[in-house]
Amino acid sequence: MTRDSSPTAPAGGPDTTVGSPAVGPALAVRRGSVMLAVAILVLTQLMFVVDTSIVNVALPDIGRELGLSSAGLSWVVTAYTLTFGGLILLSGKVGSMIGPRRALVIGVIVFVIASIAGGLATSAGVLVAARAVQGVGAALAAPSVMVLLMGIATPGPQRSRAMSMFVLAVGSGAAVGLLAGGVLTQTLGWEWVMFVNAPIGVLVLLGALRNLPEMERQRTSLDIGGAAASILAMIALVFAFTSAADRGWTSPLVLGAFAVAAMSALTLVACERRHAHPVMPLAFFASMRSAGPLLSMLVIPAGQVGFLFFSTLLTQQVLGFTPMQTGLALVPFTLGLIATNQLTPRLLPRLGERVIGIAGLTGLVLGIAWMALVASHAGPDTSIATVLLPSIVLGAGAGATFAPVTAVIMHQAPSEHIGAAASLNQGLQQLGGGMGLAVLTSVLAATGGLHSGLGATLLATAAFPLAGLILFGLWARRIPAPAAS
Length: 485
Fold this sequence. Notes:
Layout: E1 9-10, E2 27-28, H1 34-50, H2 59-66, H3 70-98, H4 100-119, H5 124-152, H6 157-187, H7 192-195, H8 197-211, H9 224-247, H10 252-274, H11 288-318, H12 323-329, H13 331-351, H14 353-376, H15 385-399, H16 402-412, H17 418-446, H18 450-461, H19 463-475
Antiparallel strand pairs: 1-2
């Protein structure tokens, strides 16, 4: 790959690549190989996505050492997704104002420091707080990954390869986290699912400072009211769902949190109607044609996160697998995901995003429902093969889902709101994962606990991708093929 020797270089004009935004950022300074820069960005995204799942395998060990219940353990996962999803709309705007490269660097530094603090935690409160601060760092950095990716890679085959690598990182990160978490927990201890972020983060920082460009800053006013309302709405909503597992749905604290979420959502709508540069443009929700794919990205991750969380409890606490065996049992998930992820770009021009997305979501529903059947009949003589097969189906479905859904969301966004679309897309994924896990933890408690209610809980998990199938299948439309030059 050649280097651009000029001090400033255009980041590409109008983008006609299928699945990419309509326009790219204005300017970028190229400091090194384009694909090396893309690799750094993909590694950054992978680090953040992996962190949503790497602690899952370590949860039983964390629970025993720190004295956490199943509902309490969910906070170790939810705290990260809560701050990540809650702050990402604001941080996307902040990144455009201070420069996406600077936002990425600051975010990674916060993330690494919080990871080290989490590994050193000696109490549940410190660990949960560290996970929340990790989410703050990830929220600040993550929107800049997509902005820089679109600015560095030129339209055409180069940007298509970059987007394929990005989608692979998003889709496979959860499974990579499970495998890494299993190996680290069994060999070095649960603390290393946190410590491992330090060397990776340092590598990302060195690569970013040396190879990533800085983009032109946007001179816009910050939507303080909308940002505050969006943060409060997301945090209150996830807190309400998560607290319901411990306190019950009629608890005054839970009902109060739902009321705060509703009032904050109404305030958000009122603020966004008046602001010239809203953090969440209401145009995204003007019709179901544009809102359907976005809302599907809220529920799809809920199904995947729930599957991985409860499959971990199934394999270790019901079937008696070691942490490493649990990670290995879910390797087929990754293999299935990689296979369909590589196949999807070849099929999209022929079949279109809607057909591929529907097929992928169907795979997600079937894979989770199959695992629910396994959990319902699980016992000491259950073989590992019964866990491997539904994992393959789920992985294949995930690999065929995220690329077309992301492509439709980004393509439908107005050109002036591309950055907001990228932030909202990632924010909904994190919020959906946190909310879904909170709801499903309550389902587990209501259906009799781990040994008797796991099958029913996994069956309820399948309802999330089923809702995504309806939202995406009914309202997604095919992206026009790029015009021949």
